[in-house]
Fold each of these.
Amino acid sequence: MDTVIELKKATKSFPGVRALKGFDLNIYKNEILGLVGENGAGKSTLMKVLIGMYQLDEGEYLLRGQPAKMKSSNDAIKEGVGMVFQEGCMLLNMTITENLFLSNEQAFIKNGILNLSEMRNEAKTALAKVELNIDPQTPCSRLSPAQRQMVEIARLLWLSEHYGKDNPVMILDEPTTVLQQKEADTLFRILDDIKKHATIILISHRLEEVIENSDRIVVLKDGDYVTEMPADQASVEGIEELMVGRNLSGEHFRESEQREPETENFLEVRNLTIEGVFEPMSFSVKKGEILSLVGLIGSGKEELCQCLAGVRRPTGGEILINGKNVLIKSPKDSIRSRIGYIPIDRRKEGLATDFDVADNINMLILNSLKSKGFLSRFKEAANAKKWVKEALIKTPSIRTKCRNLSGGNQQKVVISKWLAAESQLLVLDHPTRGIDVGAKDEIYHRIRLLAQEGRCLIMMCDTLEEDIGLCNRMLIMKDGKLVKILNCPAAEKPEPLEILSAIV
Amino acid sequence: MGIYAGKLAENSYTDQGQLFKIKRFLADCSVTGQLLSLAIVIVIFAIGTGGTFLSLTNIQTIIGLAGIPMILCLGLHQIIILGAIDLSLEGIIAISAVIAGFVIKNPNTPYDLGMLVIPVTLVIGAIAGLLNGILNTKLKMPSFIATLGISWVMFGLAVFLSGGISTPLLDLRFQNFINGTTLGIPNVTYVAFVLFIVLNIIQKRTKLGKYTYAIGGDEILAAQAGINVTKTKIINFTIAGAIYGLAGLLLVARLNSSAARLGNNLLFPAMTAVAVGGVSMSGGVGGALNAVFGTIIVTALNNGMVLMHVSPYTQSAVNGIVLISAVALTIDRKKIGIIK
């Protein structure tokens, strides 16, 4: 088989993470390559390297035998490598024709004027290749998600032909999440046809689909290549095992500090629902308990947390704090109910990065720092110093702007802010994302201490292992439904594998 | 109905008759709402004025009155499609009017450029527009601030240069042209019409036009597709500036005298016309035809109110309400994260 892409010792690091750990990978002509791995396994980094959005730190990227010199996804398209993004990248205010040829209209220009009928005819031909029979003058806002995807595929095909690149490489990121089953079938039938003169890289968390539709499957794990196999020899269970495949011996998540929660409930949720997002669900959190929410993107777990934080309003159900019914309509209500929310993007949502450490820590409790009706600089400083000491925040002074702190220390400031406001329940949205290993351990330790003090924590973690390791109990969600509640006592943590099958 | 045969798409694809083409053209331009609004305005005032509103002279008046606002609106809507805003129109009119007053035959200066004044005012406006574009793209200033600043700079400069007084003109050719009619239609309307045709071609049939819509639709995606966003924006601001410069000259011609205050109070009607015409303030939607309809609706509305002796203060309030309602109807709220 001819190779089209060759990666040699591909290495890519980000601050605190080695996203690609130096592996070799060959991608062949006329194949559908299934790429699987957990969140954070390095799939998206790898794809962004292939389409030129990232450059390798070390190692070689050979495209059709030549070193690839792409600096952006636009360069990559001209070299015949393109990606259909999960969120889609189409200008909805423009027509199919306009989108197909955007920034490549040069071919249709005569005397500075676009030849519209020629563009339309070319668009018709391009759409026919993906069996799309619609008027190319249709505005893209009127297309269904499936049709949009097809237009993007048609665009990639047209561009590679236009730039004279044979065997284009097309990367499809979770193409079926927005499709009905029937539409997905059609998609794969067309892909199978396109394969005759192209290479397709399929990224999907639906393992059955990958096995059924690809020729070869590559498994990634923690930024490294695990193995590959022909798809006809693969099984869902086998791949799941390879995806998780780390033994959990040894202490990664300070399991010895895990305590049994108290008997009393702090939070109780009854039939909470957002119509069309997640179905009515009930659960409770005891004082001193760490609860993990596990599920894929789209399972509804994020939205559930947003309801608790007052960012989104549920359409039905009740939230009880200490047995009392509370109405959470806004973040303000949620703060009053002593619920703290630590968002995933602390730089954007969790912190005012242009404010200093003291301002951020004191943000929610300014009322208690007043003296004779005005804010007291002295009280502000005293409170900030107390928390800097308590949370071991490494900062030159309490007046240092938060943008100048490391990710780990920023996270500690966010947590301190909520603790200063005496939050009893903290919702932690990926608390360790983008934080290096040492600081992670400190955060784990802090989470354990918080639980020991009798606070409740609801978490969504970066990896399944982290969820299992940290939590007392696990709530598994799938497609907006609460599927399972699992106990995770320190002594007998469940296997990731059995959980994985419930999630996917 | 598979994915490849959405009902709507299927029907429209097989039907290629002449009537269909007109229907599709109207749908493409999305002016059906505007036609309806115009019809409502006409019916209300036709009844309210007992028919005077629909008399031939009044229709001629409306078309004549709409001329200069339409030119301004055509310039402004180009920037709104881009997803930006341009508040510099009054200042650019002021500077181009004052300079025009200097170079057309007049009692105060020794210059007389004759017809060459037309390219001169276009270039003055274009330079001011270019400054808008550079501030917006190179210095990364919000267009709202950049153009507001330029407006005041230009106005100040105009007052300084003119000494704050009006200059009467001795060359009557301009006034005769602008106040004259051809085939019963005011000449200024022809100028607006030519501009409409030119902009329509730019929008529909050139790269520049497509890129303008792409940037208005989603600037980040447009840049990712390889569009030179900075260049496209600067060119559009320059075009808009040149159009305001032209309007400055026409205003000078109409009064046969130049002054810095000629542009005063022209931004609001132009903005209202853009919104009423259906050009979305969030960018990427609408076109030259929308600008034309918007101006006609707004002009007809104001003319009707005058005929019905509505008090000027009430007229202001009505215009304000029209602007707010039009924006409320056309803005794409999904695109807006935080309102500043």
Amino acid sequence: MSAVVLQHLSRRYRETTAVDSLDLEIADKEFVVVLGPSGCGKTTILNMIAGVDAPTSGHILFDGRPTEQIPPEKRNVAMVFQSIALYPHKTVYENIAFPLRMAKATRAGIDERVRLTAKLLRIGDLLNRSPHELSGGERQRVALGRAVVRDPDVFLFDEPLSALDAKLRVEMRVEIKKLHERLGSTFIYVTHDQVEALAMADRIAVLERGKLRQFGTPDEVYRRPANTSVARFIGSPSMNLMNGRLVESAGKSAFEGSRISVPIDDAMAAAARARQGELILGVRPEGLSTNSSGLPLLGEGRVYAVEPLGSDQFVDVAYGAADDAELIKVRTRPDARFRVGDAISLNASPPDIYLFDGAGRRIFPSDAGYR
Amino acid sequence: MSAVAKSLARSDARFALTIVAGLVLVNTIIFILPLLYAAWISFHDRDVILHTQAFIGFGNYRRILASSEAIAAILLSLKFTVLVAVASLLIGLGIALVLNEEFPGRRLLRAAVLLPWAISEVATATAWMFIVNPTFGALTGVLHPLGLVEANHAWINANTALYWVALAFVWHITPLCAFLFLAALQTAPESLYQAARIDRAPAFQRFLHITLPHLRPTVMLVLVVVTVEAFRSFDLLFAMTRGGPGTASQTFPMLIFRYTFEFSRYGLGAAASYILVAIGMAITTVYYFVLTRRRRLVKIDGAAAQPSGTRLATAEKTAPS
């Protein structure tokens, strides 16, 4: 059991800042996913929590105790690696037993725990195999086993599923979530896959270029993205974002973009008026519809491309001249028929419209109306 | 298979055969024919003065293995080989571990370390003979003023000759070992060391459980290379001591040289060469069996439910190292 707190945590290399003054409070037994594009400093954070890398400045606290002076072997932390990193010369049994051997457990104690762990992860019949004789999923299970067997306070996962094929990844996702329920330890999981993050996390920390962009539940980061980078990163396909400004005439307010204008309601206009200058309007593909309810996206829209995906269908709609169009993605019913080049009109409903200021911070809807 | 695929396969095969045929031809001329000729010589007793030649079967082999001089030379060779192999393996590994660390000037040092291996064995011998020269040698020159040895101390004598040659040979061959080890060390995945640190393995255990198993194939390679090199080493020995003083450093290759080129007993020399090869191969085979590790297996719960054949097949297979 361990609560993990990161305080003003920074890690700088010669020219680059991998982690930039990060504050994060991870509660005991929580499943936190650190989400961000590759190279945003996620792995560095894990390495610092594990103790194999040292922060340039800031602190990491385990249950309120600072960890600066604690070497990795003294922190009760287990890690599952992207590269899986099983000891290639040891059998599955020896791999799982290794952390216990290093902790100088008795032979009988080791045997009991290894077998228990193997049973939990359903790899009991693989104990005598070498890692190179295992499939990708089996290897991943063994790597999990090596972490689980120690009964650590904190589990660290560094993109553990990225080496697996899509089908296996979905299976292992559920299994890791179940494992968290059963073990009741703190899980810190790093990934660039927002689906993985939404599916597993209690809370998601969205990271971009070493900076924390938002820390919230999957529902919060999806429905109340704090800024455009979170809005762009969470959800697939990602949110449509348009640059523009507020235009008011004859008591009516509208968002005016270069290709599209949207009449907006009073609440939105009030929020926009409070922040002068540039505006960014955001609407998710699933927040748009092709029927005429809600606020219309004004402008000349033409079907640009159609992507049928079986359960869904996504249509790219082009606004503006063909060579300089702004593309808006919309989700439609899979059985709706569209022809490329056809004129089309789109509508968005107020709860699905977001407004961000010029710096990308969300100004509408406010957090007040949430839930 | 389509006609196109067939003709492609045929042209591939023809290309491969052409290349292989060339190699076979060259190897036959410079390698296989001399080997066969040497084997033929080894079964004959040839007298270069009377110009006679008689087939004596394994007579030469029997004579060598019954000769106390030859047995002594073989034992001396084995001693020399063991000394060289153990020392160069350990020192080479040590140097590689140091060179694998990050420190300023590492590149330069890496290049410099390889130098002794690049120097010819005769030049090496000349340098070492200068160092140990009793009158004007560097070793005496340094140690005598300190009062540690008397002037004109004979470093090379009947008791020490083999060790001095072994030392020079270790100096010559260790850089090669260090480089083979260094190359292997650089392919050791960093993530394993990280995993082991997080698994609470201290530095020595990480070396034991990750570095050494990773180096196992290289240890095998180094042992085979150094053993063969040391066991058949001739140039350095010839240039340093010529097997002397007396027969104090007369190793088996030195004896073969004497048989063949000093006594002109070609049959004896050829037979001894074949014995040398046989011993070398025997040692290498022993290495293979000692260094191929068998897996430690555990009982698997509910194993009876499994088809026993597959389990046995897995269990008996040795982990390729």
